[in-house]
Amino acid sequence: MFLVLLYLFKTFCRQEALNLRLVYNIIHNMSPTVDIRELNALIESHTGFVAELTDGMGRTIVGQRHLVNSLLIGLLSDGHVLLEGVPGLAKTLAIKTLASLVDAKFSRIQFTPDLLPADVIGTQVYSQKSETFSVKRGPIFANFVLADEINRAPAKVQSALLEAMQEHQVTIGEETLKLPSPFLVLATQNPIEQEGTYTLPEAQVDRFMLKVLIKYPSIDEERKIIRDHLAPAQNALGAVATTQQIVEARQIVKQVYVDERIEQYIANLVFATREPEHYKLPDMRQYIQFGGSPRASINLALAARTNAFIKRRGYVIPEDVREVAYDVLRHRIGLTYEAEAENVDTDAIITEILSKVEVP
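Above: the chain's sequence. Below: its structure in token form.
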């Protein structure tokens, strides 16, 4: 018991927002089958490559810590990630760098208005010699798929991608083919350019576990970016992780303990997007057309679990949930015309929800 309390004290010192009483209660009320020291040791032994991935991306990507952390959460949670930001903020570079650090197959699809479903998933090719059709697989058959400027593709392409994202399989003709594991779609889109773009269907947007908004770097980070690009070219980064390590890490993430009060907190946050008046947010009702679905609750719990895993902790605390809430919820809240007229965005709504919903 002394070792557990000592571990909790160290954790408290590292995290300002940590409530020591809550953490003690979480540990105290754990099922007897859950050994926190054993779980923490297991996580510690399987997170070495996570630090190497973070360090490797830090050598190429200046700043953008939230971006790097979000990509790791998507990778370890088996969830797709949508990156949104103006051109030049290293969205594509971050994804390519992550793919280069993992010994896995990577493919890039540049989405354009004339793209066809067959250009993504593949097609059937007729052989005159054998008088049969054979399947020619498309670029979707990879572990990491970069869907660059995904909002430039028409509805038929988005529909073809939808099955791959949700079911991890594609159907070509009468044949259904499984996609490799792990399979991760990392998509980018430009929010300021509307010509030649298509609004992503709500059903597809909901398939993305996270929607991450990329911001401009600080002035000091900008200066470092200039220095790095003027310096002599560095050697290409080598792989520091394997697909097997990622698959094993995903299994350990599923063991991270989520207390009942944390589950209730997650449910309250999602229900506040549907029924804000029940959570002392009556003014938000006029701005919300629809709230998060159960998929929002599931992904919020998964992302919080993975966030705890990345921090080498065997249990989830409220701060884990709050850190991922924006990325999980911002694309799952529909806005009314009143919200658009008054320049109220989903992040402002989430901020209000986080401030009103009681933290356990």
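Confidence is low (pLDDT under 50) at residues 1-9, 14-18.
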